[in-house]
Each structure stands twice: as structure tokens, then as C-alpha cells.
Design goal:
This protein is α+β, with helices and mostly antiparallel strands. 16% of the residues lie in helices and 40% in strands.
Length: 194
């Protein structure tokens, strides 16, 4: 009887260890990820020469074709072409998410009677965003066909980049909120509010 209890306990222990390992394994750092306590610095390797630069990501182009790193050796920022880097570096660039969110809103066309077409780019950082667009409609209430008019809102998932256009009058605001707190905003008068 005692041997059965010990065997059952041993099996339960193995099951518990297996369950813990199944949850912890995905939390391991991927190859090439910065080690904890390094300030985000990692080695970047040129594909053809093998030359390495130690640096941390500061920014990247929207399409991931280039990455801006800060070199650890001298603190200078340098743009690297992703195609010149090894596969692990290109994958890291693809998965890298800006820690902060950004909003840009630019008028791309205008017409009578006071209508504007505004192109918005939303870059969500490490949190989901709610984007609220408000604006005043000019009179008479004509609109640019196919474009939404304020007020409206959109959800943008973490790590996503979304571009869209809307039609409005002379006054507009695009506001990004993380958990109800404003993180960025642009208006017809202010281009970088935060």
C-alpha cells in the first residue's frame, strides 16, 4: 500500500513539473533577445561580413526595412538596413514593438466649402489603444464620398500600425488612449501634444 501511495505521489509530482515547464518554456528569451539587465542592448550582425555592433533599438521604419539603433560604444544613433542583417536580427526587427504609442494626422487634401481630408497613422506600443476622432463639420454638410466623418473611434491592438483617412471641417482632433489615459494627441493646430 505504501509503495502505491509513493508511486501515485511520484506521478503527480511529475505531472506538476511537466505542467510548470509547459508554462515557463514559452517565457524563455528567444535567440538574439537582449539579456535581462543589459538595458536592451544586443549584438547586431551583418549578414555578409559577420561584423557585429552592440546596440539597442530606438525606432524602426513602418515597413521594417530599416532599424534605428543606439550604439553602446559611443551612444550614437545609426540606421541599419534590415536586408544587410542576419535572419535572427530581421526577425527581432519584425517583432519589435515601440514601447510608446504615436499618433500623426496630416491634411492630404482640402476643398470647398471648407472640407479637409486627413490621413492618420496610429502606431500602438505595448498596450491596446482606443483612438477617438472629433471635429467640426462645415456647412452645408457635404462630405467626401467613402470617408468617415467625426465623431468616431477605432480600436488598435498592441504592436499594430494602422493608417486611415477621414473627412472633416477646419477643426479636428485625433486622440489615442491607453486604458482611458491619453498617451498622444494631434489637432489641426497642435502637431505633437504630448
Amino acid at each position: 500500500m505504501k509503495a502505491i501511495n509513493n508511486s501515485a505521489s511520484f506521478v503527480l509530482l511529475l505531472l506538476a513539473i511537466g505542467t510548470i515547464c509547459a508554462f515557463v518554456a514559452p517565457l524563455r528569451a528567444a535567440p538574439g533577445d537582449p539579456a535581462p539587465g543589459t538595458g536592451g542592448y544586443r549584438l547586431w550582425t551583418q549578414q555578409h561580413t559577420g561584423k557585429q555592433i552592440e546596440g539597442r533599438v530606438k525606432d524602426k521604419k513602418l515597413n521594417g526595412s530599416e532599424v534605428l539603433i543606439v550604439r553602446k560604444s559611443d551612444g550614437r544613433s545609426v540606421w541599419l538596413d534590415a536586408q544587410d542583417l542576419v535572419e535572427a536580427d530581421r526577425e527581432y526587427i519584425k517583432l519589435w514593438v515601440r514601447p510608446e504609442s504615436q499618433v500623426t494626422a496630416r491634411v492630404t487634401a482640402s476643398g470647398r466649402p471648407g472640407w479637409k481630408k486627413v490621413r492618420v497613422t496610429i502606431i500602438s506600443g505595448t498596450e491596446d489603444l482606443e483612438v477617438k476622432i472629433t471635429g467640426r463639420l462645415p456647412g452645408p454638410h457635404r462630405f467626401i464620398a467613402g470617408l468617415p466623418r467625426p465623431p468616431f473611434s477605432r480600436k488598435v491592438g498592441k504592436g499594430q500600425t494602422v493608417e486611415f483617412e477621414f473627412a472633416c471641417g477646419a477643426v479636428y482632433a485625433v486622440e489615442a488612449l491607453e486604458n482611458g489615459t491619453r498617451v498622444d494627441m494631434e489637432t489641426d493646430k497642435i502637431k505633437t501634444a504630448l
